[in-house]
TrEMBL record:
Identification of the protein by name: YfhO family protein
InterPro entries: Uncharacterised_YfhO
Keywords per UniProt: Membrane, Transmembrane, Transmembrane helix
Membrane spanning stretches: 16-35, 86-104, 111-132, 138-158, 165-184, 190-219, 239-262, 312-331, 338-360, 366-385, 394-414, 420-441, 448-468, 898-916
Superkingdom field: Bacteria
């Protein structure tokens, strides 16, 4: 026992600065979370913006995949109508830290997210401390102070909600340590392993780190110290061979991670990479001097997230020390000049549009700009530490000049107008700067208490900054999240327990567009950065709200519900769709969630940020995203406390026989009803053609304080008297019980009009870029329907506004014929379907609602059949009349080949390591200033 205690004591004595580098950020952030009431200290959570609207749902899927359903790692029908998952895993989920999530039960997912965030931030402090200790002789409180400055820099605090990016902060110091080892010892295995880990953890941030490692590598060459007698030729050979060694080990890192990167790259070609922009704009994004404000404490607010300046706050100790680096005679002029060039390059990269575009993989970021700014922060803090350790070589005028520049910056900010920084923040930052400068001057006296003083001042400043930054965001409460999870989860579980077939489920409300991952069901609604481009294109042309990376199934018709196999709908209980004329009260909020291209709606968020831990029925507000009178055609199955379930008897299976005429149909831009009409016509096998969607005229139009200009298809309304209420009412009376729909162009936005249906606010998902279809009546024969537009601006352009009646009886005839040719599924999983089908006619195809991606193969009666695309998206295969066995399987393209490359790269790495370890080299003759790799 005594030996164990001695070992622990020795470990603590040797490593207490590193322990402080880890537990310092952990305790600081945990304390801040505690005061903010984050669960388990209160009823709040860290769920905000994309962390609450994307990642937490993916984490639920992550647990389910690893613990229960490993095949969904490759493919999932929870991703819209189906999609490859490798790209999503590589962007969101392959961090090794995510294994922490398995330790928490689903009901503690919010606590798991908090723990994951704390551990990542703290580990960033630890790895930076290891870099300082191993490569730059860091020790004591100074090592801990700079490590905590790194772990709690402004980038970390502001982007903690983008939790998968924090891996970059963790592994960057280890990658740089690998470069230091490579330059001195010629051994690159350490560098290769950690770069490979980073590439696997998050390829997106790793791409930025790769750019920075190249920059840093050449910068560090300026610090190489050669013995005086070494000839120029040997120096050139050293630089050349060192570069080749660096390139070789970098390639090995890419090879080790190829098992993930190659399939991911292939997936990206159909998703994120399809938005690549190669047009270079060399203009500035903002006046260059505005970046100064971001070096000040608490320089952040919500508006900075969609379109702000870079987050580069690092604290006064690191910032002043960094400024002094350029005057520090301990470093050769060539290295200081190199540092200046790197700094200028990084600052310009965070401003010039073309450079910024390159850092982001040739895609302008949607929200969260300058995502690579952490590498500049790292560079400043590292150089600041190196300068601090050589403080005696800094002339006093250098410190005074740095202080003077800070004073000028403060004067500039006091005169400038920034909505994210206030006078108190400027004064407080200036006080910290003055205090640090005074301590730097005193450091020459070597007072024993100075390291602790630097540490405490730095910790105080970083803590205040983190507290201010985090206080400027709103968060989902734990109770509302769990109550929603319990209510919806109970409804979904009941559906799945009673129906084991394959089908899709949709809702008239949403918490996020990834509820399908949270609760584990096939769906259409989806949002991710790795979403295949053609699916939003398809659904946008069918009349749904879509954008880059998302689809919202809020505007279905009887036809689309059936076609895409939406067998069950969950609806909020306070809308009695089975009774005519009962719509939501006008106080209901429009549906919203956090989108990259849409600001967070604070009014809606209030429903999820109440402090009560025990919600009543009135407290749990379901964010309604659509009115769907068509539910009156569906069969109500059961009701839960807040939710009713409806079954769609028209839902088609995942595959069915249809006329090959479907192969000829093309997408129509801005004509969603006509596109649906064309699809129905192609699937109708009758000789006599009838129209399914019939255009109608409104019975009357009533103007209040409005004049009009143009025709009904493209009309502009203008207020007669500004600042007075202005409305246009359109009325019609259904002559049948058929469904009625309107189309509406994308010119109608939340800011310019409010839409009412029979005097009540029309619930409609607000973000859309195409013409949408809205269900306004079903089984309401003889009831007057009024659609009203209230002008919120002086003019309103009402484009593509039409009314249609849907022939429900004719539609039922088509559905009956299609179901006679439907695929009966014998077995299925995330990556396969097996079944049998009887095709009753010639000239048919087996139509599926599966995206036609390269990984799918289809066999009919055991023979491979080449697939064809319908509407540039959906998979179909030719099939003959008669009975057939059908098998469809998905294999991730290039996965096997990529695994082989990774294995070969591992072998080459081992060979390279043994070669350079065994060989005798004269690397001890070449040194980096103050560098001591271990």
């Amino acid at each position: 026992m005594s030996n164990l205690l001695q070992a622990i004591k020795k470990f603590f004595q040797s490593h207490w600065p590193l322990l402080l580098a880890f537990f310092g950020p952990f305790i600081i952030m945990a304390t801040i979370y505690g005061f903010q009431g984050v669960y388990p200290f209160g009823n709040s959570t860290l769920l905000t913006v994309d962390l609450g609207q994307q990642y937490v749902d993916f984490y639920a899927y992550y647990r389910e995949t690893l613990l229960h359903n490993p095949l969904s790692f490759f493919y999932s029908f929870s991703k819209a109508i189906g999609g490859d998952m490798i790209g999503l895993w590589a962007y969101y989920l392959t961090s090794p830290f995510n294994l922490i999530l398995i330790l928490f039960p689903p009901k503690l997912i919010t606590l798991a997210v908090t723990t994951l965030t704390l551990i990542k931030i703290s580990t960033a402090g630890l790895t930076f401390g290891i870099l300082l200790k191993k490569a730059f002789d860091g020790k004591g409180f100074i090592l801990a102070a700079f490590s905590i400055s790194y772990a709690l820099m402004g980038y970390t605090i502001v982007n903690q909600l983008n939790i998968m990016w924090l891996d970059g902060l963790v592994f960057l110091p280890m990658v740089i340590l690998g470069i230091e080892k490579l330059l001195i010892t010629k051994k690159g295995s350490f560098y290769t392993l950690f770069l490979a880990i980073m590439l696997v953890a998050n390829y997106y941030i790793a791409y930025m780190i790769c750019i920075f490692t190249v920059v840093y590598f050449f910068f560090r060459l300026t610090g190489i110290h050669f013995p005086n007698k070494i000839a120029l030729k040997k120096k050139i050979i050293y630089f050349f061979t060192t570069f080749l060694r660096f390139a070789w080990y970098s390639l090995l890192a890419g090879g080790l991670s190829a098992f993930l990167l190659i399939p991911t790259f292939n997936a990206l070609l159909a998703s994120k990479a399809s938005y690549t922009n190669f047009k270079l704009d060399w203009n500035f994004n903002y006046p260059i001097q505005e970046i100064i404000a971001k070096f000040y404490l608490g320089a952040f607010n919500f508006d900075q997230m969609p379109d702000g300046t870079p987050n580069v706050f690092i604290g006064s100790l690191a910032l002043i020390s960094f400024g002094c680096f350029f005057f520090n005679r301990a470093f050769p002029i060539r290295e200081r000049f190199g540092a200046l060039l790197v700094s200028i390059f990084l600052i310009l990269s965070m401003n010039i549009k073309a450079l910024n575009l390159m850092w982001h993989g040739m895609q302008y970021p949607i929200w969260y700009p300058y995502r690579f700014s952490f590498v500049f922060c790292f560079f400043m803090i590292l150089l600041g530490f190196r300068s601090f350790m050589q403080l005696k070589k800094i002339p006093i005028w250098g410190i005074i000049l740095t202080l003077s520049l800070t004073a000028l910056a403060s004067v500039y900010l006091l005169k400038a107008q920034f909505d994210f920084i206030y006078e108190a923040q400027i004064i407080l930052t200036s006080l910290f700067v003055v205090l640090i400068v005074l301590l730097l001057i005193l450091k020459a006296q070597n007072y024993f208490w100075l390291p602790l003083a630097f540490f405490l001042v730095s910790v105080a400043e970083m803590t205040i900054n983190a507290t201010v930054d985090l206080s400027r965001l709103s968060y989902v409460t734990n109770s509302s999240f769990l109550d929603y999870k319990k209510e919806v989860g109970s409804a979904i579980n009941q559906i799945q327990e009673n129906d084991s077939d394959f089908y899709r489920i949709e809702k008239t409300f949403l918490r996020s567009k990834n509820d399908s991952f949270q609760f584990g069901y096939p769906s259409v609604t989806h949002f991710s950065s790795t979403f295949e481009k053609e699916i939003p294109t398809l659904f946008g042309n069918l009349g749904f709200p879509v954008g880059n990376g998302f689809v919202t199934y809020s505007n279905g018709t009887l036809f689309t519900d059936a076609f895409f196999g939406i067998k069950y709908f969950a609806s909020e209980n306070n809308t009695l769709y089975q009774l005519p004329g009962n719509y939501l009260d006008s106080s209901s909020e429009l549906a919203t969630d956090s989108l990259p291209d849409n600001p967070l709606n604070e009014n809606v968020l209030e429903n999820f940020t109440k402090s009560e831990s025990n919600l009543t029925k009135q407290d749990l507000t379901l964010n309604v995203m659509s009115n769907k009178p068509d539910l009156r055609y569906y069969l109500k199955q059961n009701s839960h406390e807040f939710i009713s379930i409806f079954k769609n008897p028209n839902a088609l299976p995942i595959a069915f026989g249809a006329d090959e005429q479907l192969l000829q149909e093309k997408l129509l831009i801005g004509q969603p009803i006509q596109l649906q009409e064309n699809l129905l016509q192609s699937m109708d096998q009758k000789d006599e053609r009838i129209r399914y969607f019939t255009p109608l005229a409104f019975n009357s139009t009533v103007f209040q304080n409005v004049t009009s200009n143009g025709n009904m298809q493209n009309i502009t309304y203008k207020k007669q008297v500004a600042n007075k209420k202005a409305t246009v009412d359109f009325q019609f009376t259904p002559q049948t019980d058929d469904p009625y729909y309107i189309t509406l162009g994308p010119s109608i936005k939340e800011k310019n009009a409010t839409i009412y249906l029979n005097g009540k606010v029309l619930n409609q998902y607000k973000t859309y870029r195409d013409s949408i279809v809205i269900n306004v009546a079903s089984r309401q024969k003889g009831e007057t329907i009024t659609i009203s537009f209230e002008l919120l601006e002086d003019t309103l352009w009402l484009d593509n506004f039409h009314l249609y009646r849907f022939n429900e009886a004719a539609f039922q005839s088509v559905i009956t014929n299609l179901k006679a040719n439907q695929l009966t599924i014998d077995s299925y999983g995330d990556t396969y379907f097996k079944g049998h089908v009887t095709i009753q006619n010639d000239n048919q195809i087996l139509m599926t609602t599966i995206p036609d991606s390269p990984g799918w193969t289809v066999k009919i009666d055991g023979k491979p059949v080449k697939s064809k695309k319908v509407l540039d998206t959906l998979m179909a295969v030719p099939i003959s009349k008669g009975k057939h066995q059908v098998e469809m399987r998905y294999r991730t393209p290039y996965f096997k080949e990529a695994v082989i490359i990774s294995l070969l790269s591992g072998g080459l790495l081992i060979t390279s390591h043994l070669f350079f370890t065994k060989g005798k080299h004269s690397h001890n003759q070449i040194q980096l200033k103050e560098t001591k790799p271990k």
